[in-house]
Amino acid sequence: MTRADTHRYSQTFARGGVGQAGVEAKPFQAWIDAWQMRGLETMDDDRIAPLELAASGADFSYTLRLAAERPLVLQGDGGYSRKSLREQASYYYSQPHYTAKGVLVIDDKPVEVTGKAWLDREWSSQPLASDQSGWDWLSLHFDAGDKLMLYRMRQTDGRHYGSGKWIAPDGTAKILGSEDIVMTPLTVTEIEGRKVPTTWRIAIAKMAFAVECRPLNPKSWMGTSFPYWEGPISFAGSHAGLGYLEMTGY
């Protein structure tokens, strides 16, 4: 949970054999300890909505209801998302059309919230290749209603591999290839002894798209078992809006 002045996170692990964690398909629910994601009675599998979420950390908690009027978006080629010019790939879908409503509790103070949300689900049997150091990933909600997912897999030789999908307000989508995307880090933040690029210029010439992305909180470091950076961003330029940035391997 990120604000301009604080960044809070939590993680938990559990085994499913004793009921401490698990997933049920019908009716849909997934849980680990007191954290849960639950489909409501009217849940549509094509939208994964409506949903209720609940989770908490040492000094925060939230309960949210997510609704979506459009179906999931299959990333890559029908859900097959390549991660290099070789055989690295994943299966990957998103639900970028969620609207969220609920309550956040921060330092025992409840706050009612509304906004936009984005769900990603990705799985693969392959790790990164030996010459890939990590990735830089963005999800963007445009003020005009479009959505954009894009990422670059960082190659040690500097020839990074990019991919993305531009989603129009009517739900139609256009695949973006590595040759379409230019991601340029502008400023670096030192966190936990690491140098992390937290301000970016993103350009996609064929979509007349050129923006600068800035973090709400440059110190949004996730000091979990597998540490990484993630947090909300804003962007402005040819287009404006809000989004999310995730970076690993720094």
What does this entry show, briefly?
By secondary structure, the protein is an all-beta fold.
Strand-helix topology:
Elements: E1 21-24, E2 29-32, E3 35-44, E4 49-56, E5 60-67, E6 73-74, E7 80-82, E8 89-106, E9 109-123, E10 132-142, E11 147-155, E12 161-167, E13 173-176, E14 182-191, E15 194-204, E16 209-215, E17 221-222, E18 228-237, E19 241-247
Antiparallel strand pairs: 1-2, 2-3, 3-4, 4-5, 5-8, 6-8, 7-8, 8-9, 10-11, 10-19, 11-12, 12-13, 14-15, 15-16, 16-18, 17-18, 18-19
Per CATH, what is the topology? AttH-like fold
In DSSP terms, counting alpha (H) and pi (I) runs of 4 or more, how many helices? 0
Largest sheet: 10 strands, antiparallel
Poorly predicted runs are: none
Task: Explain what this protein looks like in three dimensions.
Helices cover 0% and strands 60% of the residues. The strands form two sheets. Strands 10, 11, 12, 13, 14, 15, 16, 17, 18 and 19 form a ten-stranded antiparallel sheet that branches. Strands 1, 2, 3, 4, 5, 6, 7, 8 and 9 form a nine-stranded antiparallel sheet that branches. It has strands at residues 21-24, 29-32, 35-44, 49-56, 60-67, 73-74, 80-82, 89-106, 109-123, 132-142, 147-155, 161-167, 173-176, 182-191, 194-204, 209-215, 221-222, 228-237, 241-247. It contains no helices and 19 strands. The model has no long low-confidence stretch (mean pLDDT 95). A hairpin with a 4-residue loop joins strand 15 (194-204) and strand 16. The chain has a single domain (21-247), classed as AttH-like fold.
